[in-house]
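Page 37, continued from 36.
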């Protein structure tokens, strides 16, 4: 009975580890394929770290946020959006501000935005082709961006699970070899 439980657990652990490795590989390839300066998206979600206090107190400086890809037509006044800025100070970089107005210019939607901590609206409108997505939530993980950029992340995310799978397989192989040896001894007696 115990051998059966160990075998089931071994199989389950192997399946989980393979799934984790496949998912990590998918994320890794997805991030590598993104154009330089663009925000990677995994299954329609992006993760960004807030660099300034422009959205405080709603979103504090340093917070890690989740952003969902959204069609421009679904965005409403009051939504917090992430977009590639055209402000010369941060041109091309992702920016996260609240939509204060939605207007149409020559049939094209444009968003007027403002940081919650700012007194005035942003001077540059946001167009649908600049949109990264709509803010979903602050992630409760402190300093995740630092962790993801650390070389230790890949060690723990890839090497440790792989080592665990190999270890479990070696134990399984060893037990199988012992069982075969015992059966061979029983037959020869």
């Amino acid at each position: 009975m115990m051998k059966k439980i160990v075998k089931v657990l071994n199989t389950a652990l192997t399946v989980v580890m393979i799934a984790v490795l496949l998912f990590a590989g998918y994320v890794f390839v997805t991030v590598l394929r993104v154009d330089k300066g663009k925000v990677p998206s995994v299954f329609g979600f992006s993760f960004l770290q807030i660099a300034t206090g422009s959205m405080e107190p709603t979103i504090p400086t340093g917070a890690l946020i989740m952003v969902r890809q959204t069609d421009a037509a679904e965005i409403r006044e009051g939504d917090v959006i992430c977009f590639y800025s055209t402000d010369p100070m941060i041109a091309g970089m992702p920016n996260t501000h609240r939509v204060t107005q939605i207007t149409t210019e020559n049939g094209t939607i444009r968003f007027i935005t403002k940081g919650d901590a700012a007194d005035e609206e942003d001077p540059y409108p946001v167009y649908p082709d600049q949109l990264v997505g709509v803010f979903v939530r602050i992630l409760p993980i402190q300093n995740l961006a630092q962790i993801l950029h650390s070389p230790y992340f890949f060690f723990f995310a890839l090497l440790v699970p792989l080592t665990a799978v190999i270890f479990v397989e070696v134990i399984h192989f060893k037990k199988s070899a012992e069982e075969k040896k015992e059966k061979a001894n029983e037959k020869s007696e």
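The longest strand covers residues 94-105. Flag for discussion at group meeting. Residues 44-144 form a domain with the Umud Fragment, subunit A fold (CATH 2.10.109.10).
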